[in-house]
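Ticket 4471: requesting a sanity check on a complex prediction with zinc ion. Repro inputs:
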Amino acid sequence: MHSPGNVSVQDRPDPTIEKPTDAIIRIAATCVCGSDLWPYRGANDVDNAPMGHEYVGYVQEVGADVRTVKVGDFVVGSFMASDNTCEICKAGYQSRCVHVVGMGGVGTQAEYARIPWADGTLVATPEPPAEDLIPSYLAASDVLGTGWFAADAAQVRPGKTVAVVGDGAVGLLGVLAAQQMGAERIIAMSRHADRQALAREFGATDIVAERGDEGVAAIREMTGGLGAHSVIEAVGTQESMMQAVRSTRAGGHVGFVGVSHDVELPGNKLFYSAVHLHGGPAPVRRFLPDLMDRIANRMIDPGKVFDMRIPLEQAADAYRAMDQREAIKVLLTV
Ligand SMILES: [Zn+2]
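Returned structure tokens:
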């Protein structure tokens, strides 16, 4: 991305092993993230940056210290590379590893990528996957793992009522995660018919089209005036964050995973809400083995969030389609 709104595909040097803990992968599929739209729309600075942080692919080469993946393996990795051995990783917060490397700086909207901390970051499938599962594995790399973390952080449990703020790919997969975790009632907040339909397919039991004060009132009305037990916030704006906090019952939990942009929480409202807040960049690596099993066993089909496929060479069209909301999420074929 050269500057906001200006994306092109160019030749860059092939990545090479720089550290013995690196691996090089040949990317099988990649995609555009909702968070890539922040710089595209000028909300973040961008200056000739390689783009992309979601990826699945085949191991092409490994450094001398890499033990858990080998050449030819099909692997899924998180958008944050982690050693998976430090105290923070062991506690399940690999996205904040003491050696973390953000894959956005590497740029996985590409044919090849260097993966730092390959042993800690990559998870291999036992055998090469069926072609039709590749979109779902790609989703696991970020949007599914992020929606899953949001549901986990919001303490979704059997019998609970869950509200999901945000109908992008992460919010929709938050619905799927809540369904898998046994929520009794899942309220998706969306104004778009196609996204409402996918939310229902993923397990939403109710749809609320209102937002802001009206959205909060609708959630409260559906929950006996109390608010939801668990609320997933998957946007990252002031409005969506406050909608999430105000839709949660006292003692309930908000899992917030929308990348925060200028969100400022008013202390008095937070104080009197008596809700738990937990969120941040999702430690996708914690959930990958479980999510990959569910995909392999066809228990879940998160790849459905990709409603458009475009060759990598036409990446600019993918950004345009997502920016214009013509697509929920675009898969780039490599
Ligand atoms: Zn670590």
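Notes from triage: Residues 98 and 237 are 28 Å apart (CA to CA). Leaving this open until the requester confirms.
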